[in-house]
Amino acid sequence: MAPAAATYCIIGAGPSGLCTAKQALALDSHATVTVFEQSKQIGGLWAYTDDTGKDSNGLDITCMYANLRTNLVKQGMGYPDYPIDEQAPTFVTISDVIKQLEGYVDKFQLKKVIQFEREVVRVTRNFSTDRWDVLVKDVAANRYAMHQFDFVLVCNGHYSSRIIPSFPGRNIFRGQQLHSKDYRREENYRDQRVLVVGGGHSGMDIAPAIALHADKVVLSHRCNDPVHTGDRVVQKPEVLRLTQTGAEFVDGTREEFDTIIYCTGYRYSTPFLSVDCGVSLENNTISPLYYHCININQPTMAFIGLPFNACLMLMMDLQARFCLKFFTGQKQLPGKQQMLEWWQKDQQERKERGLSGKLSHMLAGDLQQRYYDDIARIAEIETLKPVLAKMHADCINSKKEDVNFRNFEYRIVDDEHFIKVQIPPTPTMS
């Protein structure tokens, strides 16, 4: 049972942290909610800046690129109580998303609970008080302060710790090398020869965009079949090694390049959690967690936003409501053994489906709607309508087949059905 005036620590003011703060305030009117955000603004990676590398406080900058249009339908990008503008296209821009988040913050007066330029350095379980000790650095003033909380909700996102493959020759290549976290504008690569490494979402987005300006773009990936990137992008298998002026591929071919962009993803990162927090991070999996969010060993801690291949903001909001139903004492969590049994069963099913390691938090196929329905049923809250997961799945499949998948509008018909309408091309001036 939560204390009369429970205290909640929320780490991060991106999409997951914002909806978690809103739900904590809404579900626990006596609560003290504190959001620690290490940057100067809300939005996480949606807060665009032209800057790369480190910010003025020496912290890593991670944001989306300037001309981004989401590869997910907008109906999954808003919150249940604050959807994205109906007039916006199905595939919205980065400015549409940050406008949405700023409107959400204003509507629910969340700025008052956010402390900016505050880096969470260490979270430790204090067994004598049965609370959490949270060491926070004021990065602008270079001062530290210790805080105590009843509950900790980790909302620091997926996209802070980049993965860069260790190809032989990486240290001798004379051109520019960067990760997609530092990619900003395609026109910066005009007349260049560019190698894009990785056939995932960002590689499939960035390669054709750069190809409109670059002299040559090669997309290297490990997919057995070509991915759909249009005619301007040459596709190659995996890189064997880098040379001083380019790359050699596993098929024996060689190419010369000026720039290499690694669209090779990120790993979950929670360097601020001490070992006594009761979770481990191995093979890009955080465990053991009850329904991918509640810390089974220390069930006053939760992680919001770990699952992927999901209706982004809607899933985060659903997870926040799920966790807070227990944290506020409105429902009782199952015992530790029961939660562990669920986790072990989930891990076994995922292993059988080939969803272990970095795919351990993926909501593949039918797992997506089942996940929404399960946590909603357990917490006795409203689930997400099946039409949302169906639109999401159709969008993902379309992206694999057609580089122009964004030339369609998705419209909801009812709780189960949607229609997909092709957008007529904009007439050109003669």
Walk me through what this model shows.
One of its GO terms (molecular function) is flavin adenine dinucleotide binding. Belongs to the FMO family. Its EC number is 1.-.-.-. Pfam families: FMO-like (PF00743). The protein has helices at 15-27, 94-107, 201-211, 312-327, 336-352, 367-379, 386-401, and strands at 7-11, 32-37, 114-116, 118-126, 131-138, 143-149, 151-154, 161-162, 176-179, 193-197, 216-220, 233-236, 239-242, 246-249, 254-256, 259-262, 266-267, 280-282, 285-287, 289-290, 294-295, 301-303, 408-412, 418-422. The chain is α/β, with parallel strands linked by helices. It has two domains: 7-160 and 266-388, FAD/NAD(P)-binding domain, CATH 3.50.50; 164-262, 3-Layer(bba) Sandwich (FAD/NAD(P)-binding domain), CATH 3.50.50. Strands 3-2-1-7-22 form a five-stranded parallel sheet, with helices on one face. A five-stranded parallel sheet has the order 9-16-10-11-12, covered by helices on one side. Helix 1 (15-27) runs parallel beside helix 4 and helix 4 (312-327) runs parallel beside helix 6 (367-379). The longest helix has 17 residues, at 336-352. It is globular.
